[in-house]
What we know:
alpha+beta
Amino acid sequence: MKRRWNNDGNKWTTDGRxxxxxxxxxxxxxxxxxxxxxxxxxxxxxxxxxxxxxxxxDFEEFxxxxxxxxxxxxxxxxxxxxxxxxxxxLLASGKCPDDDGRVPEGGSY
Length: 109
């Protein structure tokens, strides 16, 4: 990980949870192999900005993202898309209408 800076008042430790720990990376790899997509939220350490939220389907793409964009102290949360995004917990669903307000009854999705 790159190092931008660290605030010594935040008690940096070698015992904390690490997204790069073998067990974390193995869980992510297994999820991608067996279930498919993952949802990632990247929180920036003292970033003064909203987190970056995105979806991935490839383990190498995930590790390349960390290498290119994550810095020491950033927090990264990962969920299984399949476990979270289900038909039984949809917030809303529908098709996009045309200029006349019509939507297709069928379609190839």
